[in-house]
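Feature request, filed as a ticket because there's no other form

It would be nice if the structure record came with a short human-readable summary line next to the C-alpha coordinates. Right now we just get the raw output. Example of a typical job, pasted below so the devs can see what we mean:
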Amino acid sequence: MSSKQPARKPAMGINPLGSGGGLFDKTEPVTPTDSETSEPSKSTSRKKQESQNLETRKKNLENTKEKSGFLQDIETSKKESIGLQVTTEVNDWLDDLVKANRRNTGRKLPKQVLIQAGIELLRAMPVDWSEVGDIEELRNKLSQVARLVEERQ
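Raw output as currently delivered:
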Protein backbone atom coordinates (compact mmCIF):
# COMPACT_ATOMS: atom_id res chain seq x y z
CA MET A 1 0.00 0.00 0.00
CA SER A 2 1.14 3.38 -0.90
CA SER A 3 1.04 6.28 1.49
CA LYS A 4 0.29 8.67 -1.37
CA GLN A 5 -3.36 9.62 -1.74
CA PRO A 6 -4.84 10.52 -5.13
CA ALA A 7 -5.06 14.25 -5.96
CA ARG A 8 -8.37 15.73 -4.88
CA LYS A 9 -10.58 17.51 -7.36
CA PRO A 10 -12.07 20.83 -6.34
CA ALA A 11 -15.62 20.53 -5.04
CA MET A 12 -16.96 22.86 -7.77
CA GLY A 13 -15.14 21.13 -10.61
CA ILE A 14 -12.41 22.41 -12.89
CA ASN A 15 -12.28 26.18 -13.41
CA PRO A 16 -12.96 26.75 -17.14
CA LEU A 17 -11.14 30.08 -16.97
CA GLY A 18 -8.14 28.74 -15.10
CA SER A 19 -4.69 28.33 -16.62
CA GLY A 20 -4.61 24.61 -15.98
CA GLY A 21 -6.15 23.46 -19.26
CA GLY A 22 -9.46 25.28 -19.04
CA LEU A 23 -11.94 25.70 -21.87
CA PHE A 24 -11.02 29.26 -22.70
CA ASP A 25 -7.75 30.83 -23.79
CA LYS A 26 -6.70 34.33 -22.90
CA THR A 27 -6.96 36.71 -25.85
CA GLU A 28 -4.37 39.29 -26.74
CA PRO A 29 -5.32 42.86 -25.85
CA VAL A 30 -6.25 45.04 -28.82
CA THR A 31 -4.53 48.40 -29.03
CA PRO A 32 -6.33 51.20 -30.87
CA THR A 33 -4.65 52.73 -33.88
CA ASP A 34 -3.67 56.39 -34.07
CA SER A 35 -6.72 57.24 -36.18
CA GLU A 36 -9.03 55.70 -33.56
CA THR A 37 -7.46 57.53 -30.63
CA SER A 38 -7.23 60.98 -32.16
CA GLU A 39 -10.13 63.16 -31.00
CA PRO A 40 -11.48 66.03 -33.08
CA SER A 41 -11.10 69.45 -31.58
CA LYS A 42 -13.96 70.77 -29.49
CA SER A 43 -14.71 73.58 -31.92
CA THR A 44 -14.98 71.15 -34.83
CA SER A 45 -17.29 68.82 -32.91
CA ARG A 46 -19.35 71.80 -31.71
CA LYS A 47 -19.79 73.06 -35.29
CA LYS A 48 -20.72 69.58 -36.47
CA GLN A 49 -23.27 69.27 -33.66
CA GLU A 50 -24.76 72.67 -34.48
CA SER A 51 -25.13 71.75 -38.15
CA GLN A 52 -26.78 68.45 -37.17
CA ASN A 53 -29.14 70.32 -34.83
CA LEU A 54 -30.06 72.74 -37.61
CA GLU A 55 -30.71 69.84 -39.99
CA THR A 56 -32.87 68.13 -37.37
CA ARG A 57 -34.91 71.30 -36.85
CA LYS A 58 -35.40 71.67 -40.60
CA LYS A 59 -36.52 68.03 -40.87
CA ASN A 60 -38.97 68.52 -37.99
CA LEU A 61 -40.47 71.54 -39.73
CA GLU A 62 -40.59 69.75 -43.09
CA ASN A 63 -42.24 66.70 -41.54
CA THR A 64 -44.85 68.91 -39.92
CA LYS A 65 -45.51 70.73 -43.20
CA GLU A 66 -45.65 67.47 -45.19
CA LYS A 67 -48.19 66.00 -42.80
CA SER A 68 -50.20 69.24 -43.05
CA GLY A 69 -50.92 69.14 -39.36
CA PHE A 70 -50.23 67.48 -36.09
CA LEU A 71 -51.08 64.07 -34.66
CA GLN A 72 -51.43 62.48 -38.10
CA ASP A 73 -50.07 59.08 -37.08
CA ILE A 74 -51.18 58.98 -33.44
CA GLU A 75 -53.45 55.95 -33.93
CA THR A 76 -51.10 53.88 -36.10
CA SER A 77 -47.61 54.56 -34.79
CA LYS A 78 -45.88 52.49 -32.13
CA LYS A 79 -46.11 54.06 -28.70
CA GLU A 80 -43.79 53.87 -25.71
CA SER A 81 -44.72 54.39 -22.10
CA ILE A 82 -42.74 57.02 -20.25
CA GLY A 83 -42.85 57.99 -16.63
CA LEU A 84 -44.28 61.48 -16.65
CA GLN A 85 -44.95 63.61 -13.63
CA VAL A 86 -46.79 66.91 -13.90
CA THR A 87 -47.80 69.43 -11.30
CA THR A 88 -51.19 69.11 -9.65
CA GLU A 89 -52.30 72.31 -11.40
CA VAL A 90 -51.41 70.91 -14.85
CA ASN A 91 -53.08 67.59 -14.07
CA ASP A 92 -56.26 69.35 -12.93
CA TRP A 93 -56.25 71.48 -16.10
CA LEU A 94 -55.88 68.35 -18.24
CA ASP A 95 -58.71 66.63 -16.33
CA ASP A 96 -60.98 69.64 -16.82
CA LEU A 97 -60.12 69.78 -20.52
CA VAL A 98 -60.86 66.06 -20.99
CA LYS A 99 -64.18 66.38 -19.12
CA ALA A 100 -65.25 69.48 -21.06
CA ASN A 101 -64.39 67.80 -24.35
CA ARG A 102 -66.38 64.70 -23.43
CA ARG A 103 -69.39 66.85 -22.48
CA ASN A 104 -69.20 68.95 -25.65
CA THR A 105 -68.41 66.26 -28.22
CA GLY A 106 -69.45 63.01 -26.56
CA ARG A 107 -65.98 61.55 -27.18
CA LYS A 108 -63.03 61.27 -24.85
CA LEU A 109 -59.80 63.02 -25.80
CA PRO A 110 -57.18 61.30 -23.62
CA LYS A 111 -54.57 63.25 -21.68
CA GLN A 112 -51.80 61.44 -23.51
CA VAL A 113 -53.05 62.81 -26.84
CA LEU A 114 -53.05 66.35 -25.45
CA ILE A 115 -49.51 65.90 -24.13
CA GLN A 116 -48.38 64.41 -27.48
CA ALA A 117 -49.87 67.45 -29.28
CA GLY A 118 -47.98 69.80 -26.97
CA ILE A 119 -44.71 67.99 -27.63
CA GLU A 120 -45.28 68.08 -31.38
CA LEU A 121 -46.01 71.79 -31.15
CA LEU A 122 -42.71 72.34 -29.31
CA ARG A 123 -40.85 70.36 -31.96
CA ALA A 124 -42.34 72.51 -34.71
CA MET A 125 -41.16 75.75 -33.10
CA PRO A 126 -38.14 77.49 -34.65
CA VAL A 127 -36.07 76.82 -31.54
CA ASP A 128 -33.06 74.56 -31.06
CA TRP A 129 -34.17 72.67 -27.95
CA SER A 130 -30.84 70.82 -27.73
CA GLU A 131 -29.20 74.08 -26.62
CA VAL A 132 -31.25 74.10 -23.42
CA GLY A 133 -28.98 73.23 -20.53
CA ASP A 134 -31.13 73.81 -17.46
CA ILE A 135 -34.60 74.86 -16.34
CA GLU A 136 -33.77 78.57 -16.45
CA GLU A 137 -32.68 78.34 -20.10
CA LEU A 138 -35.86 76.37 -20.84
CA ARG A 139 -37.96 79.14 -19.26
CA ASN A 140 -36.19 81.71 -21.42
CA LYS A 141 -36.79 79.68 -24.61
CA LEU A 142 -40.47 79.20 -23.75
CA SER A 143 -40.81 82.94 -23.08
CA GLN A 144 -39.31 83.65 -26.50
CA VAL A 145 -41.78 81.26 -28.14
CA ALA A 146 -44.70 82.86 -26.26
CA ARG A 147 -43.58 86.33 -27.46
CA LEU A 148 -43.40 85.06 -31.05
CA VAL A 149 -46.94 83.68 -30.81
CA GLU A 150 -48.26 86.92 -29.27
CA GLU A 151 -46.62 89.03 -32.00
CA ARG A 152 -48.30 87.00 -34.74
CA GLN A 153 -51.78 87.40 -33.26
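Something like this underneath would help us a lot:
The helical segments are 34-37, 42-67, 88-105, 111-124, 135-152.
The CA atoms of residues 58 and 137 lie 22 Å apart.
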